[in-house]
From TrEMBL:
GO terms for MF: peptidoglycan binding
Protein name: Sporulation related domain-containing protein
Source organism of the structure: Pontibacter chinhatensis
Coiled coil: none
Residue segments, region Disordered: 233-262
Membrane-crossing segments per the record: 171-191
UniProt-listed SUPFAM superfamilies: Sporulation related repeat
Lineage of producing organism: Bacteria, Pseudomonadati, Bacteroidota, Cytophagia, Cytophagales
Amino acid sequence: MVEKHIKSLLYEHDCVIIPDFGGLITRYVPARINSTKHTLSPPSKKIAFNEKLVLNDGLLISTIAHHNRISKEEAQQRVAAFVHQAKNNLQAQNRFELSDIGIFRYNPERRLVFEHTETDNMLEDSFGLPEISARPVRKSEEPAVLRTLIKERQKELEEEKQPLRRRIKRAYNVAAGLALVGLCASAVYFLSLQADYNLSSLNPVFFLKSTEHTAREIDEQEFFAAEMAGVEAEQSTQESPETASADAEGMTLSNEPESAVAEPGDVVVEEPAPAAEVEEAAPAHIIYTTDGRSYIISGGYARLENAEQYRSALLEQGHKEVFILLPQPGSRLFRVSLADFDTADEAQNALNTYRKQFGETLWVLNN
């Protein structure tokens, strides 16, 4: 408690006497430079101690009595107790510390020595001033430092002059990106609405057979031949009612071997024709085998019905030789041909003529 009042009095007074102990004296210390630490310290107060100033001037006792609202006798008793404790510590430990003020010790001659602890600046005029650290500047480094500062300042000025232009550029980039994303999404959406679209403009190399899918590809030519065989067989069974009734009256099944000669009036049931004969009965405009000819392709379709519709439209326009080629190995497209030639050179020579009428998407397929 007494230490607190001693410290507050040192802020306002140049001398504070502790009765029967000694006096603390302050003196002004100007600003100083520490060349080793490269620091600049503000003005302050330095505290010294004089053990001969033991006469009570009443400053410390009056201050304690006033702030604690007690009598001067009680305040004097507190100061006396504080001095007694300080002397006991010095006798036992040879050391007594006043918080934030300093440390008391006995020297070899048994004289009391005070060491000031510079924790707080007790000069009111320097209140709030910190210690400044400064790094020495070499002459050889000054041009580089100045150039760096000038460049940074010029950059700041340029940024201040062109804030609007930068914002406009950033907004333009964002708008362009959003527009591009919107166009891509719209294109994918409209393509998804078209169940069947012409793929003739695509590169034919894309539809070549992939080596890694060879084992899984289905032979679509054989599938189509089998399908045509089933259609012909079904058409052969759908006869008129009159013919069916006439055949039913005179029909007899023969259980004899194939080598037996059929008698007059007997009806021999023929076995189904081989697959080769059925393939010959397929429509003439459908090319389902590799014939070595070169075709000018106008379009490719995922379904045979769509290819047939496109062929019918071409026939209505007056084009006679329109063929449909079954999907080749590695592809699932039914291609529509406008013309066919013996060699690839003849097809290439006639390609420009057909492109003038049907567009630049035509290409030559070597079958």
